[in-house]
Design goal:
It is built from two helices and six strands, in the order ββββααββ. The chain is α+β, with helices and mostly antiparallel strands. It has a domain of 79 residues: GTP cyclohydrolase I, C-terminal domain/NADPH-dependent 7-cyano-7-deazaguanine reductase, N-terminal domain (GTP Cyclohydrolase I, domain 2). The strands form two sheets. Strands 2-3-5-6 form a four-stranded antiparallel sheet, with helices on one face. The longest helix is centred in the middle third of the chain and has 16 residues. It is globular, with a radius of gyration of 16 Å. The termini are far apart.
Length: 129
């Protein structure tokens, strides 16, 4: 196999750094292991961010997400670690990660973590209706 999991996140120059715009990425195949039982945990990750100077390169994101497959992690910890690594890689104006873990043992967990650049605030919403 030529492609392997990796913790390295690549970025590229934001083609429109002067404009606030939202990038939304849905990752429906996230897996890690329960640190208590070793059983697999599955989640859909919902990532949205407003880039500053850099954007996340998608193939490296795929390999980064893949790197958690054999790693034991609590939902709260892995969600915060992923957000921290993504923020460190691209230093966005705003980033939110929602980790929607599948039901196991009758429990459904959503973890939402956010980053906001110091001094940045969103533009007011536009109502077209």
């Amino acid at each position: 196999m030529t492609t392997k999991p990796s913790k390295e996140l690549e970025t590229f120059a934001n083609p429109h750094p002067g404009r606030d715009y939202t990038i939304r990425i849905r990752i429906p195949e996230f897996t890690c292991l329960c640190p208590k039982t070793g059983q697999p945990d599955f989640a859909t990750l919902h990532l949205e961010y407003i880039p500053a100077a850099r954007c996340i390169e998608l193939k490296s994101l795929k390999l980064y997400i893949w790197s958690f497959r054999d790693e034991g992690a609590f939902h709260e910890d892995v969600s915060n670690r992923i957000l921290g690594d993504l923020v460190a890689a691209c230093q966005p104006r705003f980033m939110r990660l929602r980790a929607e873990f599948y039901v196991r043992g009758g429990i459904h967990t959503d973890v939402v973590v956010e980053h906001r650049e110091a001094g940045w605030s969103p533009l007011p919403p536009v109502d077209l209706g």
